[in-house]
From TrEMBL:
This is Methylase. It comes from Shewanella gelidii. The keyword Cell membrane does not apply. One of its GO terms (molecular function) is methyltransferase activity. GO terms for biological process: methylation.
Amino acid sequence: MQLAFSQSCENNKQPILEVLSTAFAKSTHILEIGSGTGQHAVHFAREMPHLFWQTSDQQPYLEQISQRLLQYPTANIGQPVALDVSQSWPIKNSHFDGIFTANSVHIMDKIMVEDLFSGIGRFLSPFGSLCIYGPFNYNGQFTSESNARFEQWLKQRNPHSGIKDFEWIVELAFNQGLKLQSDHSLPANNRLLHFKRE
Ligand SMILES: C[S@@+](CC[C@H](N)C(=O)[O-])C[C@H]1O[C@@H](n2cnc3c(N)ncnc32)[C@H](O)[C@@H]1O
């Protein structure tokens, strides 16, 4: 079977890893939300053998993630679990001291992003880290022409999706007891936001 593949994942996985290596240096169990093709999971789990990487996504994506894990076996990756942020999360207790999600917040509508943060509030353990990768707007402005064009493309596909405001994300995180630790500028006008539960 041909594996699902994203060129942007290939391009961004190394710059993201460089930030995660520090942000998740003391973490042991990471929950990834919206694992997509599984490319990030395989790369990050291999390069950070000190932690266990739990993949998840909405049901239709699980097969493609499983296929990638089959072709790139790594002991410290968990088989994907069905997790839709707006439904009941398949997590029993709060043993995740890290949560990661890439390129999902601009796909979600605003209610889903609120649901994402309410789940993070329930399932990220004390002192855990949250890392969110993707494009964000600042002071209501796009950070680049290409992000403005990307927004138009997103809205044509789904008028409820779109690039979210950095300030709103910080507020949602703060309401769940998370404080922004760092905001990294990554290639292609993307950011990596690192929050910590205090
Ligand atoms: C553009 S893809 C990004 C996939 C991968 N993380 C990457 O960076 O290539 C968006 C991801 O967000 C996930 N997603 C969208 N809405 C979601 C929801 N309500 N609950 C969980 N995941 C969701 C999709 O299933 C998909 O995996």
